[in-house]
Structures are given as structure tokens and as C-alpha cells.
Specification:
Blueprint lengths: L11 E4 L5 H9 L3 E4 L6 H8 L4 E4 L7 H6 L5 E4 L9 H6 L4 E2 L6 H16 L2 H9 L17 E5 L3 H12 L3 E5 L11 E2 L3 H7 L2 E4 L13 H6 L4 E5 L8 H10 L2 E6 L23 E3 L8 H21 L20 E8 L4 H12 L3 E8 L3 E8 L4 H9 L4 E7 L1
Helix pairs in contact: 1-11, 5-7, 12-13
Length: about 400
């Protein structure tokens, strides 16, 4: 069986926001048609320039809206070449039969290393000292500067990144505590605490590695900052909405906190030519970076490969492993068969109707796998080559069908 029934040279893959060349090369090797844009596109620009895309690749700035999904009739999949998928209306994409893929692992080390470097930088006031020397000032002093060895690091969110931060922090001689709403197995000598309050009261440094949800929005504000140790430090490289910035500024100004490092912000510029203004600019011992946690050559190369591989497996084989909004299906290819891929509403009787079509047509099913979630079902079915077109046509005509395609 060939990889796909539709000629690959006519499958249009649109990549935005300077996605790494590793992804471009990966797609080109398979013979796909590639179009790239250096920046994010607005909703109207997306509809104008990428409504005919079969696959859309984005990073963190482009917003995939319901309106775009309605216009993108050919869209098969969306690839987020980053960790998060908040920029995509994933439920709407699911209802349109479009799986969304991301890269949950590829920039883990890059973010973890940045956090450790910032912990040391805050403890030694390196940001301020660097600026002073560039300004011609010589202010050598040990006052308020510390080793991180023996200090306690609190990690909020002990996932892929948080756990790696813990490993690196231990190698610095730090004690590591973590809090997560899901029970996690500690790595090394890291210790779980039972509540966020316990972590706040016990830590010299606190770093956040949580998703953007209603529960994490402004999860750190005046009451939480007041519970932190006086003279402690806060770091955030997760989502900009996690920290109440006015409350943080007040805690820094009062001396409750000795410093902070922020890599993410509630509102971020769309491109490198934008002017960025922030209330914490020029605040003592505050490190502000432009969302560079995953911005290393290694991370971007790996993200390009990870997401492009997931997208190619879906296009070529129908494999949805790793999709954030689709049932996970991975069925080995069968010889002497054509593969039908069907996304349908998850209502009773759909599989009965599909199997009835197969029976009426007189086709033989070599392999079949169905997985569902609360809203949709995703079916992979390998059937006789001679009758596959008839089966596909009739399946696509079912009222319950959302999207059906065939692989020869």
C-alpha cells in the first residue's frame, strides 16, 4: 500500500513563524508541497493565505480560531511546534475532524537549563551587576548575594520540565520540593509536598511549570506572595497569566521578594520588531527575557523533527498517537488493502452502520480499529482494494461522518 492516495506534491503544508528548517527538510524528503511564512498571521491573513492548506504548522503566536477552521475545508491536521496548544481552539478543531499535534518533550532540557542559570543569576544579582559594569559603574559587593547550595527550590508543576529542573537543582546541592495536583513519582531526592501553601512557606526559590487553565490563572497573587519566605525569589517560564504582576511588583518593592525572573507575559509582542513595555522593567534584580525558554538550536531542531514526524505519520498512515484532541489510534499497515480513515460523531450505532455498508458492498475487512472520546470516534479500517472506493463514498455520506479519506 502506498503512503497516501492524494499526490504528495499536491498536499500543501503551510509553516508559520520561522519553524526550524529540520521540519521543512523532513516534509521535503517525503515530497510534500511546502509554503513558509516568517511571522504569525492574523485570522484574516490565515483565511486569505492558508485556507487551502492540508497541514498547518505554527508556533505560539498564531491563533487557530473557529472561523479559520470553518474556512479551511481541506485542513487535515495542525502541528504546534512548541509545548503548548492554548493558541488553538482544540475542541473546535476536533469537531471539524482536525487532530492537533505538539512537542511535549523536545525543549525540556533547554527550559530546565535556563531556570537553573536564572536561579544562580538571581542569587548573585548578575543582571544588575552586568548592567552596572556596562554603564561604567564598579559596585563590587557581597551584600545580598548567596550560594544556591543548601537552599530549597520549590517546583510548582512536576511534569517533563519541572522534574528535569529538580534533577539539575540537586546537582547544584539544592534541596528540592515539588507540588503537583496529580500524584507524581519523585526523581532522585526530590520530595512532594501536600499543598501549594506548604511549598510557598518552605522554599527559597519557586519556579512554575504549569499549563494555562482557569485554575492556574493568577494562582500567585498578594495572599500567596505574603506566604513566601521574606527575601525569596520567584521564577516563571510557564504561562504569563500564572502570576499577578501588580502583586509581584508590590512584593518586590517592599522587599518581601529579593528578585524574580520572568520569561513569559500575559501579552507578548507579535514579532521581534515590536516595542515591549512592562511594569517590571528597571526593577532591581528582576530578569526579563522574551519567551526564550525553548529557544535553543537543539530544542528547535528537535521540535521540528518531533512534530513533523507526528504529522507525516498521520498523513501517511492515519496514526493519531500524540494528538492532544483526538482518540489515539495506531494500526499497522496491511498488505493488499486500502485504508479508510473516518472521523465521526460519537453517537450510538455508527460502527453498526459502517459495518453494514461493508457487508452490503461485499468487501472484506482485513483490520479495523475504533477509538472514541466524549465527542468523536476515529476509525481506521483496511478493506479490499477493489471495493474500497465504494465503501469510502458511502461512509462519507453518513450523517454522522465528519471527515473521511482513503489511503491507497
Amino acid at each position: 500500500m502506498a503512503s497516501t492516495s492524494f499526490p504528495k506534491a499536491e498536499i500543501k503544508i503551510v509553516l508559520l513563524e520561522n519553524i526550524h528548517s529540520s521540519a521543512v527538510k523532513s516534509f521535503e524528503t517525503d515530497g510534500f508541497k511546502i509554503q513558509t511564512f516568517p511571522k504569525a498571521l492574523s485570522e484574516s491573513e490565515l483565511i486569505e493565505k492558508a485556507a487551502d492548506a492540508h497541514v498547518l504548522g505554527i508556533r505560539s503566536k498564531t491563533q487557530i480560531t473557529e472561523n479559520y477552521l470553518k474556512e479551511a475545508k481541506r485542513l487535515l491536521a495542525v502541528g504546534c511546534f512548541c509545548i503548548g496548544t492554548n493558541q488553538v481552539k482544540v475542541d473546535a478543531a476536533m469537531r471539524h475532524g482536525v487532530p492537533v499535534f505538539n512537542a511535549p518533550f523536545s525543549n525540556t532540557r533547554s527550559v530546565a537549563e535556563l531556570i537553573l542559570s536564572e536561579i544562580v543569576a538571581l542569587a548573585r544579582k548578575l543582571g544588575d551587576q552586568n548592567r552596572f559594569v556596562h554603564e561604567g559603574k564598579w559596585q563590587k559587593s557581597a551584600t545580598g548575594c548567596y550560594e544556591v547550595r543548601g537552599k530549597t527550590l520549590g517546583i510548582v508543576g512536576y511534569g517533563h520540565i519541572g522534574s528535569q529542573v529538580g534533577v539539575l537543582a540537586e546537582s547544584f546541592g539544592m534541596n528540592v520540593l515539588f507540588f503537583d495536583i496529580v500524584t507524581k513519582m519523585p526523581i532522585g531526592n526530590c520530595q512532594s509536598v501536600s499543598s501549594l501553601d506548604e511549598l510557598l512557606k518552605s522554599s527559597d526559590f519557586i519556579t512554575f511549570h504549569v499549563p494555562e487553565t482557569e485554575q492556574t490563572k493568577n494562582m500567585i497573587s498578594t495572599p500567596q506572595l505574603a506566604k513566601m519566605k521574606k527575601g525569596s525569589y520567584l521564577l516563571n517560564a510557564s504561562r504569563g497569566t500564572v502570576i499577578d504582576l501588580k502583586a509581584l511588583k508590590a512584593a518586590l518593592s517592599s522587599g518581601q521578594l529579593a528578585g524574580a525572573a520572568l520569561d513569559v507575559f500575559p501579552e507578548e509582542p507579535e514579532g521581534n520588531d515590536s516595542v515591549f513595555k512592562h511594569e517590571l522593567q528597571n526593577q532591581a534584580n528582576v530578569i526579563l527575557t522574551p519567551h526564550i525558554g525553548g529557544s535553543t538550536e537543539e530544542a528547535q531542531l528537535n521540535i521540528g523533527l518531533e512534530v513533523s514526524q507526528s504529522l507525516k505519520k498521520f498523513i501517511n498512515n492515519g496514526n493519531t498517537s500524540g494528538s492532544v484532541n483526538f482518540p489515539s489510534v495506531d494500526l499497522p499497515l496491511q498488505n493488499q488493502a486500502h485504508r479508510i480513515l473516518n472521523v465521526h460523531k460519537n453517537v450510538p450505532g455508527v460502527l453498526r452502520d459502517i459495518n453494514s455498508i461493508v457487508s452490503e458492498v461485499g468487501a472484506n475487512i482485513q483490520a479495523q480499529y475504533l477509538s472514541t472520546n466524549a465527542d468523536i470516534g476515529y476509525l481506521i479500517m483496511d478493506v479490499d482494494r477493489a471495493l474500497s472506493d465504494q465503501v469510502k463514498k458511502r461512509m462519507s455520506e453518513l450523517e454522522t461522518s465528519i471527515k473521511t479519506r482513503i489511503l491507497y
